[in-house]
Structures are given as structure tokens and as C-alpha cells.
Amino acid sequence: MVIRDGDYAYDKTVDLVETWKAMEKLVDKGLVRSIGISNFNSKQIQRVYDSARIKPAVL
């Protein structure tokens, strides 16, 4: 979501790990070949990476 002047924010009520698990299911179903993350800070990356069964193809 764009806030103003190119600054971005994300919805903190959306759980990143839950979202990642949903994307892993898409890989399992063959609907996508790879998944990755973008514009995450180091804490967000580590949180996803620590819980990921399928590691991000793109960081």
C-alpha cells in the first residue's frame, strides 16, 4: 500500500509466515515454480526464512 511520496507501508495484521505457508502450498500444487520476497527488512527476511519449508528463491 502506498502512503505518500513513494513511501510504503504494509498491513501489520497480515502474518508474513502465514502468507509464506500459503505460497508454499501453491508450489506444492504446481501452480507456481518458485516464490521469493522483496522489500523486506532483515528481521522480516529472517522470520520467513526460519519458518520456511521452501526457502525463498529470490531475496
From TrEMBL:
All residue ranges annotated as the NADP-dependent oxidoreductase domain in the record: 11-58
Superkingdom of source: Eukaryota
Example of a GO MF term: oxidoreductase activity
Annotated InterPro entries: AKR (IPR020471), Aldo/ket_reductase_CS (IPR018170), NAD(P)_OxRdtase_dom_sf (IPR036812), NADP_OxRdtase_dom (IPR023210)
Stated name of the protein: Alcohol dehydrogenase [NADP(+)]
